[in-house]
Amino acid sequence: MGSFEAATAVTFAGDGPEPGWDRYSGEIQPGWDYAGATNGGYLMAMAARAMAASCGNPPLSITCHFLRPASAGPAEVMVESVRSGRRLSTMAATLSAGGTDIVRVLGAFGDIVSEPVLTTLDAPTGASFDECLRDRVDDDDRPTTASGPAFLDHVDIRLQPGDEGFARGEPTGRAEMAGWFAFRDGAPIDPFALLFAVDVFAPSIFNFSGATLWVPTVELTVHVRGIPVPGPVQARFRSAHVAGGVLGEDGDIWDRDGRLVAQSRQLALMPR
Amino acid sequence: MGSFEAATAVTFAGDGPEPGWDRYSGEIQPGWDYAGATNGGYLMAMAARAMAASCGNPPLSITCHFLRPASAGPAEVMVESVRSGRRLSTMAATLSAGGTDIVRVLGAFGDIVSEPVLTTLDAPTGASFDECLRDRVDDDDRPTTASGPAFLDHVDIRLQPGDEGFARGEPTGRAEMAGWFAFRDGAPIDPFALLFAVDVFAPSIFNFSGATLWVPTVELTVHVRGIPVPGPVQARFRSAHVAGGVLGEDGDIWDRDGRLVAQSRQLALMPR
Known about the structure:
Two copies of one chain form a homodimer. Chain A is mainly β and about 270 residues long. Chain A has four helices and 17 strands. In chain A, the strands form two sheets. In chain A, strands 1, 2, 5, 6, 7, 8, 10, 11, 12, 13, 14, 15, 16 and 17 form a 14-stranded antiparallel β-sheet that branches. In chain A, a hairpin with a 5-residue loop joins β1 (about 10-15) and β2 (about 20-30). The radius of gyration of chain A is 18 Å and the shape is globular. The mean pLDDT of chain A is about 95. Chains A and B meet through β5, β8, β9, β13 and β15 of A and β5, β8, β9, β13 and β15 of B.
């Protein structure tokens, strides 16, 4: 079992307070945070695992509202079966920790089938995984002491050359962040890992403004459109519209064969 | 009061079964359907009105899962206050009719402020509202008997020249549908009307495939990014990826001054 799968595992813990509700328990692991706050995609993936276990299918479309930050410790996921259909199950869930609600999730679960009949979303023709800039190593492949999210110990995020400029005060001027994602332990990227992968890159707005202030996500919706083939996935995030202290960001993820496997869209707050 | 506002009005009907829950009653009106099934955006707007009434703010980000079709008749919206914050309130709701759940909604509500600091989403440079093709009138401005959704009696949807080709078996070959939206009674387009406007155009896939089969929406998320100035709004919908019997469609809406006011994304099922 990969480190991400183990860190987001949940266990059935009994029936919920109403018919059609199930309780799951999990453990928010240390090391998947940024400055103590556990990554949002990680929390969404843990909730999604409980929802998927309850209905027997992976997430197709899933929306997560982030209510409060969480840190390492025991968590509970209360899952509600909203509707069970032939092709799809609609599920709702609340992940709580220390008796406080952390995220609220709503999603449709069902078979994920690839075979595109139409796509205008081609993978970017940028540098390959091997050519992209590696984080946390220097030119001689030695680990650096660069600061950053703790979860970089688990994931290998490689930015397209230039897109890392924001970190040294040289933003590209375009609100775009692209690159590759892989688990350091080589674990396959399944639908739950895709929910995490869409939330681990630095905000694309950093390359527009140069500012690197925290932009808390209000809502994140992910459509899982395919199961990646083995290997790293390629990702591109763009902010198309920032207004009134509110930021939108769209993400697209392709597998190593260039097939679209996920689309994300989030609404986040800009610091005022 | 405009016909849409009246048709989606809700009334506080008492406390819900738990603290922080409110009940609202409404009436799904006839005439807002397609072949008897009430428009999904209409149902989402009715639920959003109850959620907004409960928290005192309009929707910023709202996700609706469509569980079953509904037709005209009494409806109830059960609203749950998930989190009440300084800038945002997170609200959940279920709209039911005849004792059956119809839609499940999750959203963040708060002040909508325009003033873009970054936008790469410019309004399409197509035909103006007056130049676009008018539905349901012939060349001499006389009403036609063209079939179509009943709600066309309430809304004036004008497609860009060419984009109406699907209806006569001449699709453009591009999965795009663009044009303008206005209420026939001239009512202003508020955030609730935007939730409806993103769901009234024919699916953009019709211009790719030429097929006009029903594509039921599984999930629709709308980000309200501005309050439109008076007048019609301009809209563009595109399907970028269709695979495994699942269709994604993105929509963007601008006001008459060319400011982005809403973005939508939906996942829908293709007939198998």
